[in-house]
Structures are given as C-alpha cells and as structure tokens.
C-alpha cells in the first residue's frame, strides 16, 4: 500500500508559484530522494506534506486517508481532528537545523513526546531511547544538553527523537545542509543504517552520491515541477537537458 | 527615634512588602493573559488590549491609583469605605504592572524561533503543551533580565501608595520626618535599597540556574 500519496498539489507564496501540480506516491518502506536546485520547491513540498504549510490545491493522503485537501471552491479542508491526529502519528520530520528543544536533555528530547503525547510508560520509552541512542552512536550523551553537542550529534539526536514515535514514514528536509563535510558523513551513515528499519523515507538532499546509493526512487525537481522521476540509475543517467544541467555540477562526485 | 517610631516603620515595611508581593503574584499571570490578548488574531480584542496597555504605560501610576480608588464613587455612586484603600492599591498596581509584564512576555514569545513550534507540531504536542512545555520555559530565560528591571521598579513604586494614604514605608517615614528628623527617611531609603539588593540577588540566582542551556 502507499503510505503517502500526493496529488496535484499547488502552492504559491503571494503571486509566486512554488509548487505547480505536483503528484507523487511513496509505498511502505520505500526510500525516495528529492533533488534539485535551491528554490525549486523541495522543502515547500515536504512542508505541505507534513502540514506545516497549507496547500492551495490538490490533496495529501496517508495510507489512503485524506489528511488535507482543497475542495472545489479552493478552500483547504483537514481531516476531522481525531483522524488527523492518527494520521500525524504516521509521519515524522527531521529538520535542516534540528530544532531540538534546548532546555531539555538529550534523553528528555527523545522521550518527552512518546510519554506526553503518546502516553507511553516512561521506563519503556527511556529503554527504547537508549537503544536508539546506541544506534546513533550517542549512548554516552543521554544526559547532555543540545548546546553541548556538535551539529552532527544534534542531528542524530533529532533523528532519534523522530524515530522514538515509531513513524511509518520519515521526512528529511536537507538534513546535512547545516553541517560541514565531516559531520555530514556521520549523519548520512546513520540515515543509511535506517534503511533496514523498513520505514519509508523521503529525503530532500543535495548529497547526490548519497541519494543515488540509498534511494529506491529519485525525483528531480526544478521551478516547482517534477522534471524527472525514476530509479537512481534512470535519473542520474538521464538525457534530459534540465537534469543534465543540474547533475553536471556533481559530475565528478558521481563517477 | 523612639521605640514607637521604629514600630511604626516596621509596620510600614510590612505593608510595602505586602503591596509588592500581592502585585507580583497577580500581575505576573495576568500579564501573560494580557500578552495573549495583545497577540490575538481577533483585531477587536487586540486593539482593546493595545489601548489598555497604552493607557497603563502612558499615564502616571499615581493618577491610576486615584482613579481606582475614587472611580467607584464618582462613576457609579458606590460608597467606598476606608478598608478599600489598600485594595485600591493592590488593584491599581496589579493592572498597571500586568501591562508592563505583558509587553515583556510578548517580546520574549515573539523572539522564539518558528522551528520550536514546528518541531512541537510534528511531534504531536497540543497547543497548550507546546506553549507551557516548550515555549514558556525558554521565554522565561530570555525575559529574566527585563523582568528584574521591572521588579526593581516595583519595589520603589510601592511608595506611590502614599497617594492614597496607605500606611506603607514611605507614608510612615514622611509622617515621622515631619516631626523634625531625617532619620525615618534615611531608614526608608536603606529599606528600599536592601530590598532591591535582595531582589537582584534572587534574580541573579534564577538566571544562573537557567544557565545550563543556550
């Protein structure tokens, strides 16, 4: 089944169209990378899918259920509150600049939502959090505060925080853009390691080699439209002029 | 100064501390509510609160105290008793300080990065959880220096209760000084100074306590 279905989304900021009739779907456990130049609408697409931004037209479905859509009159409708809450449990989002809660320790950052939103037992959540931290290579940082961590460590905590809620699909909004190359490597390594968790992932990234290696499917976006969609092999070897012009800059890395 | 004068001064001191405490206890939470009104999307509510803050900040507290005290009689013909004096001071101070605190809260709340709200939304926190667990604690850290300033002003402002002849520190000291000695005024000065020293120490401790994160 498709965990996520986006149909004919449009979004403008003022008079400037950012997304023009975007449709895509992600099946269970599938890894989709979205690449493309800055300002092509990649982040806006994620923000519409996660309801941080309201769309102007089209609809977003999770597991077949409509989460948000624009009706014929152009008014944006959301699923009923209870249903919407269920839907929101299905996805998580990792931000470019982490957005950890600075006043909470690493442990509290991870377990607070499971305990206070999902009403799970604290001991159980803490146990899971420690396992997640181990997976992230941060088992000794449970009591640290975000300000004591490097950017790469912060992003790994943010990934653990998102995973702690057991999402079915995880969105990454340029997860390494705020990091230097060395820290980028450690975060990408962690994301790669998630591939066997069978969580669907949608990754907006400028790390072309990473996108090529990890993805089941790659989408190339430019100027608010999907220019190309296909397997990494198809997209990275594409003859499309626009795709070539963009990927050409990465030519050496991809060889 | 004789024993009875000292007793009177101590009594005045008690009243000053009472005004200070009651004002803080009520105006700090009221200020938060006012701040919400000030930031409300409803333009009518927002403008109403704006006008309230504008008047509270734009007119002397001394005058506001008189309006609160005499208002019920002149506006509604309600007879006011002597016991209302202290209440009028409590009310006048609370609504005045709530306006100032509201603006401090607002500056703190509006300085919070949108990412904190977005992260909370994605993690499924309700609106009130987001505010009280994520936003407010960070806001308090940010506004502590501004709050300290305002609280120190409040200590000194308690002397304005003199306007309604409430027997607080300054009123007492002035009455005693009228009998030809500077000593009571000096004592009052020392009292305000030491009180504020204490406030500064407590607030510094609070700032230090929140120093564990940035």
Description of the structure:
Chain A has 10 helices and 11 strands. Chain A is α/β, with parallel strands linked by helices. In chain A, the strands form 2 sheets. A 6-stranded mixed beta sheet of chain A has the order 7-8-9-3-10-11, with helices on both faces. A 5-stranded antiparallel beta sheet of chain A has the order 2-1-4-5-6. Chain B has one domain (3-209): MetI-like (MetI-like fold). Chain B has helices at 3-38, 43-58, 61-76, 84-110, 114-123, 127-157, 169-177, 183-209. The longest helix of chain B has 36 residues, at 3-38. Chain B is flat, with a radius of gyration of 20 Å. Chain B starts with a helix and ends in a 5-residue tail after the last helix. The model of chain B has no long low-confidence stretch (mean pLDDT 93). Classes of the chains: A alpha/beta (255), B mainly alpha (214). At the A-B interface, strand 7 and helix 3 of A face helix 5 and helix 6 of B.
